[in-house]
Amino acid sequence: MDVAYVSALAALGGSIIGGLTSGFTSWMNLRSQARAARLAHDLAGLEDLFRDFIVAASGAYGDATQSDQPKIQDMVGLYGMISRMRIRCTPRTIDSAEKVMETIIGAYFSPNKSIPDLQALMKSERGVDPLKEFAEAAREELGAFSQSG
């Protein structure tokens, strides 16, 4: 075999291997970027779900302390959010969200609270924060989710 052919084949082989390596590296980089973007999107969606639940549940609880007439549409919306959590969240987060709902429903069936009643609850350390356990569970879930990515 002629030396010129060997040199040409070596150059051609090197070009092919270099091109394949470059293509594979680019593909892996794009795949990694797409995965990171998907995780960031999923994390943002979970944060939005938790925020929306906290806002809606705190409003419903405030209403429940002042009224004995539940707003069915608000309650159904809260149950819808819990159902969305069942798809994505850990059992602890779901259990704490369900406890929030039980507290809200219970507040509708208990006597209405006045401002002095609420102040007395706060001072007695029994508290008026039915969302505390949920917020802690949500924070842990978000922390675990962001570490898994």
What's the helix and strand layout?
Elements (H helix, E strand, L loop, with lengths): L2 H64 L5 H17 L2 H19 L5 H9 L8 H17 L1
Radius of gyration, in Å, reads 28 Å
How do the helices and strands follow one another from N- to C-terminus?
HHHHH
Structural class: mainly alpha
Count all strands and give the number.
0
| Total discrete domains | 1
How confident is the prediction overall: mean pLDDT?
Answer: 85
Major sheet size, sense and barrel closure: none
- The amount of helix comes to over 70%
Strand content: under 5%
Distance between the termini: 54 Å
Shape type: rod-shaped
- Number of helical regions: 5
Low-confidence stretches: none
What does this protein look like?
The protein has one domain. The chain contains five helices and no strands. Helix 1 packs antiparallel against helix 2, helix 1 (3-66) packs antiparallel against helix 5 (132-148) and helix 2 (72-88) packs antiparallel against helix 3 (91-109). The chain is an all-alpha fold.
Feature tags:
5 helices, 149 residues, mainly alpha
What's this model, at a glance?
This protein is 85% helix and 0% strand. It has one domain.
